[in-house]
């Protein structure tokens, strides 16, 4: 899910009952701490949801240590190569 999309921000606001300003601040922090990468290595057949394989591909290309996601299909994998896949709650607990 892209958080640059206003529709997605509205869904987040409705789901979590958070003020728009707080969502904007969190998005800014995530962007600042994130690495954006195109998938250089094609990965197929790892995730139940084939679209999630692209997430793994991008993470490998970016040399990510973690994928932070609420996606159950990704979370069920727990780890791919050296990349740990954790929930936002688990990530927050690490901070």
Task: Summarize it.
With 95 residues, the chain is mainly alpha-helical. Helices cover 51% and strands 9% of the residues. It folds into 2 domains: 1-34, no CATH class; 36-95, no CATH class.
Mind explaining what this structure looks like?
With 95 residues, the protein is mainly alpha-helical. The protein folds into two domains: 1-34, no CATH class; 36-95, no CATH class. It has five helices and three strands. The protein has helices at residues 6-16, 20-33, 52-61, 72-77, 88-94, and strands at 66-68, 79-80, 83-86. The protein has a three-stranded mixed sheet. The radius of gyration is 14 Å and the shape is globular. The two termini are 23 Å apart.
Order of the strands making up the biggest sheet: 1-3-2
- Please provide the ordered H/E string of secondary-structure elements: HHHEHEEH
Alpha-carbon distance between the termini?
23 Å
Average predicted confidence as pLDDT: 85
Rough shape?
A: globular
Tell me the quaternary state.
single chain
Report the uncertain regions: none
- Secondary-structure-derived class: mainly alpha
Number of domains: 2
Helicity, in percent?
40-55%
Radius of gyration over alpha carbons? 14 Å
Number of strands: 3
Observed structural traits:
3 strands, 95 residues, mainly alpha
Give the topology.
Layout: H1 6-16, H2 20-33, H3 52-61, E1 66-68, H4 72-77, E2 79-80, E3 83-86, H5 88-94
Parallel strand pairs: 1-3
Antiparallel strand pairs: 2-3
């Amino acid at each position: 899910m892209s958080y640059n999309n206003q529709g997605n921000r509205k869904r987040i606001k409705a789901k979590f009952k958070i003020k728009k300003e707080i969502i904007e601040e969190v998005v800014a922090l995530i962007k600042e701490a994130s690495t954006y990468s195109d998938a250089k290595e094609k990965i197929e057949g790892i995730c139940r949801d084939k679209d999630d394989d692209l997430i793994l591909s991008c993470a490998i290309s970016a040399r990510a240590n973690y994928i932070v996601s609420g996606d159950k299909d990704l979370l069920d994998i727990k780890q791919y190569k050296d990349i740990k896949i954790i929930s936002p709650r688990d990530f927050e607990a690490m901070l």
